[in-house]
Amino acid sequence: MNTSTLSLQLLQNMLVVLAAPLLLGWVNTCRAWMQSRSAAGIFQPYRNLAKLFQKDAVLAHNASPLFRYTPYILFVSMWLAAAMVPVIAVDLPLSTVVDVIALVGVFALARVFIALAAMDVGTSFGTLGARREMLVSFLAEPALMMVFFTAAAISHSTSLTTIVGVLAHKEFVLHPSLAFAAIAFIMVLLAENARIPVDNPSTHLELTMIHEAMILEYSARHLALIEWASAIKLFAYITIGFALFLPWGIAGVGEWNALPLALVLLVIKLAAAGFGLALLESVSAKLRIFRAPEFLGTAFLLAVLGILTHFLRTSVA
Amino acid sequence: MNMQGQLIDLFASLLLLISFAMLAQRRILRLINLFAWQGLILSVSTLVVAWSSHQHHLYYSAGLTLLLKVIFLPWLLHRLIRKLDIKWDVETLINIPTTMLIGIGLVVFAFNLALPISALSATITKSTLGIALATVLLSFMMMITRRKAVPQVIGFLAMENGLFFAATSATYGMPMVVELGIALDVLVGSFIFGIFFFHIRETFDSLDIKHMEKLKED
Fold it and tell me: Which domain holds residue B9?
């Protein structure tokens, strides 16, 4: 680890944390366009965050320290997760020491804390949300692992940087197994980020909410951190998707002059992904909560099929 | 591996994906549309095999598949659905997530079964034999787990798709006479099924085949 890679890591960290609300704003804007509403502008998430940071926080009388620390833990672990993913360059000190399994662990850590905090105050909504979140995430996690294993089986490594290196910088080969994994990953992304087929991020309806129910008790800076963390989570998931399935343009080791191109490509890919996400959310209806296991079961099935087709090909060829 | 081999692998995977989609499908009209898509993919992949292996009779079978399984049979089934007025949801004996899990088991079984066979084969498409076998088994399971007659027939037709794909992937297709014979069989079979549907419904007022179990008592 030298100063140049360290500065690259810091640059990426700042980029992720500052650009994440912008991505969320872009998704919301696209969705507003598709639903013939006038959009609030792509900078609206920043304005929301600024407003929340100025307010005074209100805590329940019986809130334990866990409740107060959870937003910080959540924010830091999401930031850490996003820092592990090669977003613009492979040459990151953080992503060489950890692999995708650690990444899943970091996501799980944040999830456990938010579920505990939701149950901490003891309101029925928080408990309801925490239970639903656990239902969704325990089904989504194996599918996510299987997606990672498919990519790992192709590149013989669970480290994201190696996966990107093998997929982006070697000879182009069509991998049907990656196509399965990509569909499964999109389904997991929708479920894990509380997006429409599983959860609706913009309602406060008792019957439908999952993620929102958990954070109803939070206010002001705590809420701002949680909102920001979920924006970073969405950003992290989308960039993991890029690293696994669209790794072209991510700068390789020591390729400093490839960085501007990597940035431009990243912006284009993010814009396209945000548009696609908004499109998916506009054309699909929200599933009943009891249909969510079926949805995620399908994601798991696709991921398993991906890994199976990969082994079928390699064992014969 | 060359580009054609990769393309055929991709089509094979799509075939498997559609088999699973059919297994998970609740609406009968979408089931028919998926069947048509499966036929289209089968036809295109046969075309690619024909092109890469210079087997001219495969062009004819690709065309035949296109005409019969993408255009004619789905049209016939759509017409039957309209005439019989049976746009109900498909009923299954086992719930759909369980069906999918059993499906994964079948795929693993089929892949293992195909390994020694494809090791003997020398064609460029040999790695797809397992997928073809899995498609056959999945369609078979669809026939078993569906309660009504129309999805069972679609399962039968999808099974035929899988067999056809197995033939092209293992040996570059059967002799032309056999292929024509099978195509004709399927055609005649689906006509007979169509007539059966009307008779079953006239006799039992329903297309649920559990009523037919009573017949064996008499």
Answer: 3-200
